[in-house]
Design a protein that fits this description.
CATH class of the largest domain: Alpha Beta
Number of strands: 5
Number of helices: 15
Order of helices and strands: HEHHEHEHEHEHHHHHHHHH
Structural class: alpha/beta
Strand order of the largest sheet: 2-3-4-1-5
CATH architecture of the largest domain: 3-Layer(aba) Sandwich
Bound molecules: zinc ion
Radius of gyration: 23 Å
Number of domains: 2
């Protein structure tokens, strides 16, 4: 069977359906690619562009994109004149000027390929004005133009934009899939973890299904960051279990990150730790993901009844979900702290 867009890891069903529509000449003129940072949106966009112009597109004995023809090499190296990335630079939003410039360019003929690509990075930061400016092109697209919007949340886009683009959602990768990928493609990243299976597992779990994040956590800087967040989680866990006191809980909460995404990541790690304690309570030989050993899990959980652990884990996960759904961070944390003190 032909392999489609296979520089992208995982995402089998997405790659299959998209690859077939490109092969059949039916690629939608506007794609909204949704996924968190580090989930492969940019890789997918380049794979789509390469597949669309690949010189071996019709030859089913080649993967699509083939990766070796001139067109593929130009696109995948990031040097193709007909593939334009539009980014917000250092600014907080992607403004209307950038969209206007791109729009002017869209009406010029492509130079190298039969089709031109415009890839808008961080599309979730586009101002309403910028989105409205883009809408006109989406309604009546210039011939031979494909637009890709890379967005961390499709909900941030106007309904009118969403209704005119095909939504592609990046899938979260399992720790196993990521590990296999690194073993095959980037084994040097795993060298420092040869005798540290627990460290490797912690990095893959912290990445939360995103390959780019896993790569970051496996690096020396990421490892240090992870160590810091583990220390923080240890303190938090202790203040809720073996050393429970209101003062310690307040101190541990005070050390948490204040920004949305790092905070959600810290609470996810806490949830993972609580999950270990719950599993350990149910069966002493349960496989643990956070605690290094059964003794560690026992130390935390001995004085806490199972229903209490279940309650804490539920509350922590509900808080993560609230934070990820844009709830006020401080309010969500205060509510969690109150519930944990009960
Ligand atoms: Zn090719």
């Amino acid at each position: 069977m032909r392999r489609y867009l296979d520089a992208l890891v995982g995402n089998e069903s997405l790659r299959g359906s998209l690859g077939k529509s490109i092969e059949g000449g039916a690629l939608h003129h506007a794609l909204l690619i949704e996924g968190p940072a580090g989930s492969g949106k940019r890789t997918l966009a380049l794979q789509i562009a390469a597949a669309e112009v690949c010189e071996n597109k019709a030859s089913t004995s080649h993967p699509l994109p083939c990766g070796v023809c001139r067109a593929c090499r130009l696109v995948l190296s990031g040097n193709a004149p007909d593939v334009t990335f539009i980014s917000r630079g250092g600014r907080a939003t992607l403004g209307v000027e950038a969209v206007r410039d791109a729009k002017e360019d869209m009406f010029l003929s492509p130079t190298e390929f039969p089709v031109k690509f415009y890839i808008f990075e961080d599309a979730h930061t586009m101002t309403v004005q910028a989105q409205n400016a883009l809408l006109i092109v989406l309604e009546e697209p210039p011939q031979s133009t494909k637009i890709m919007l890379l967005s961390e949340e499709s909900e941030a886009m106007l309904v009118t934009i969403r209704s005119r683009a095909r939504l592609l959602r990046m899938e979260a990768l399992s720790p196993m899939v990521m590990k296999r990928y690194f073993e095959e493609k980037e084994p040097s990243l795993l060298l420092p973890y040869q005798n540290d299976e627990a460290g490797l597992t912690a990095a893959l779990l912290a990445a939360n299904g995103r390959l780019g994040e896993a790569r970051r956590y496996l690096s020396p800087e990421g490892k240090a960051e992870l160590k810091e967040s583990r220390d923080m989680t240890d303190a938090l866990l202790a203040s809720m279990t073996k050393d429970a006191s209101f003062g310690r809980l307040c101190d541990a909460f005070g050390a948490l990150p204040t920004k949305r995404e790092p905070l959600a990541a810290a609470l996810r790690l806490l949830h993972l730790a609580l999950r270990d304690l719950i599993l350990f309570k149910k069966a002493e030989n349960a496989p643990l993901l956070y605690c290094e050993s059964a003794e560690v899990a026992d130390g935390y959980s001995r004085s806490v009844p199972l229903p209490r652990l279940l309650y804490m884990a539920d509350r922590v996960m509900a808080t993560v979900e609230d934070i990820e759904k844009n709830a006020n961070v401080q309010t969500a944390l205060t509510l969690l702290k109150c519930d944990l003190c009960r």
